[in-house]
Amino acid sequence: MLASDTYLRQDRIYFNLIMVFVLAVAAVALLYAPSIGSLTLFVLVAAMIFNMILTYNLGLQRGLIAAIVLTFIYGSYIIYEIMIHRIAEVNFAYIVWLFIYPLSSLLSGQLTLTVSTYKRELENKRSLEKLVTLDAATGFYNNQGFFRKLDEEFLRAKRYKTYFSILLIKISNFDELQIIYGEIDSVKILQAVATKITAQTRISDIKSLIEENMLSIVLTETNEEGAKVVIEKLHQALDTIATEIKGVKKVIRIKPSIGIASIRESDTDVLEIYDRAKGELKYDRG
């Protein structure tokens, strides 16, 4: 189920609720102040609201068909009143209501078209942002996406007094792997590493490929002690990886170095945390 479908359903629900609320207000007004209208007027308003809900939910074409039916029924009612009750002159309001139903359909149709257009533009913008900030090979955020998400997490942690940790994972022998297996197959190795990282972390953790041989994980709601547990799991998982190279399954030894840094109360900039994690890389040899 697409997010856009959910969004559209929510939008329809809000519109329907507003229309039902308007109808309820009209019913209460008629009940407690009958002098402001009649039962006939309430029925006309209810039919108009029904037509607007129908148009908004099912589209302008069906809404206009319903408006034509309602207009025909109402027109027949006016003719009936003239012929049976011998009304000498037709009230101007009677004529107005003949145009209200198609106009209300057009209004609802235009509204749903505007909302749909806005929704599509929003989805296109989000898709473009994903293309710009995601790495095609691993599905992780790229360098730009990493720093954007890191900045968001930093601001959130400062605002709500929470914490997070950064792990930087450098594949120390990646240059050697590129020489041995070539650039194309080294990407497969990188994908296998990304798969292992995904298996050892949570969905909420922010995973990125920030350099050709360096990945990053932002561990949300995780202090330094919790991050060290993740590091141990990653060292065990990334010691060797299995992937298919030129149609042959190979077990490849890699050498990951992992740097760690957690947010501190004294930190004023997200780069302070990133630099600490980068500085820790030289102390971890896998």
UniProtKB/TrEMBL annotation:
Classification via InterPro entries: Diguanylate_Cyclase, GGDEF_dom, Nucleotide_cyclase, Rev_trsase/Diguanyl_cyclase
Whether Transmembrane helix counts among this entry's keywords is: yes
The membrane-spanning stretches of this chain are: 12-33, 39-56, 63-80, 92-118
Q: Which organism is it from?
A: Anaerosporomusa subterranea
Q: Which keywords does the record carry?
A: Membrane, Transmembrane, Transmembrane helix
UniProt protein name: GGDEF domain-containing protein
Would the keyword Transmembrane helix be found if you checked this record's keyword annotation? yes
Question: What is a GO molecular function of this protein?
Answer: diguanylate cyclase activity
| All copies of domain GGDEF, residue ranges | 162-286
